[in-house]
Amino acid sequence: QPDDHWTFDFGYESDTLDISSRSRSSGVEADLYTLSTTYRASELFDTTFGVAYKDFTDNNEYLNYFWRTDTALTTSAYWKTRLGTEFSYETFSDQNVDYFSPEEVYSFYLIPMVEHTWFRRYEKVWVDRMYLGLGKKWQKSFGNSDVGYIRYEQDHQFSDTKSWLIGTVFSKKKYDDEDVDAINVYTTLRFKF
Predict the structure, then answer these.
(1) CB distance 189 to 183 below 8 Å
(2) First-last CA distance in the chain
(3) Nearest to residue 108, comparing CAs of 91, 90, 96?
């Protein structure tokens, strides 16, 4: 009997913006490939395993293996609270470059989330979400550090096949021994076939 417990995703992003600003300013670009599988046990729990690969124009290579979970804590008609976790292992092939390119980085995040539904009619939905990422990062030769972020996003679903996501993230990270605060804005148009 068919079910919808498993999904498989493949992504490609040419000249990805998901690289350090220092590498972009020195003219280095990268293509991003992602492959992941998600097991959705129910509306209460899902888990994702995946790998991401970046091929830099200076021949540096990046690999990221990740595991995420998402668990529903409370659910009502207009409000939801969830708790996510994320474990990640990252590595770069070349450390002799002018941008952040560590040999090994491990990170773990605990991510509580609140979602509010503002409007729902048939397939049309407007929701917003607030995430708080609390984490720890371990970098080879530099030890561990506290990391975190606050993310706010709005998700506008126009039909069961078209939606638009827009959001912003304020993050506190550590690169080698330097503290870095960043603000990012993102938008995504999604079409399902």
Answers:
(1) no
(2) 23
(3) 90
**Residue 38 exposed, middle or buried by CB count within 10 Å (0-12, 13-18, 19+):** middle
Question: Tokens representing 142?
Answer: 């530099």
Q: Which residues make Cβ contacts (< 8 Å) with residue 117, sequence separation at least 6?
A: 77, 78, 79, 125, 126, 127
Is 1's pLDDT higher than 60? no
Task: Say if residue 93's pLDDT is above 70.
Answer: yes
Whole-prediction pTM: 0.84
Dihedral sign (CA 163, 166, 172, 176): positive
**Per-residue pLDDT reduced to its tens digit, 95-152:** 999 888 999 999 999 999 999 999 999 999 999 999 999 999 999 989 899 999 999 9
- Please state, in angstroms and as integers, the Cα–Cα distance from residue 182 to each residue in 36, 150, 171, following that order: 27, 11, 5
Only one residue has tokens 């049309």, namely 124
Instruction: Give the list of residues 6+ apart from residue 25 with CB closer than 8 angstroms, or none.
Output: none
Per this entry, what is the length of the chain?
Answer: 193
Q: Which residues contact 178 (CB under 8 A, 6 or more apart)?
A: none
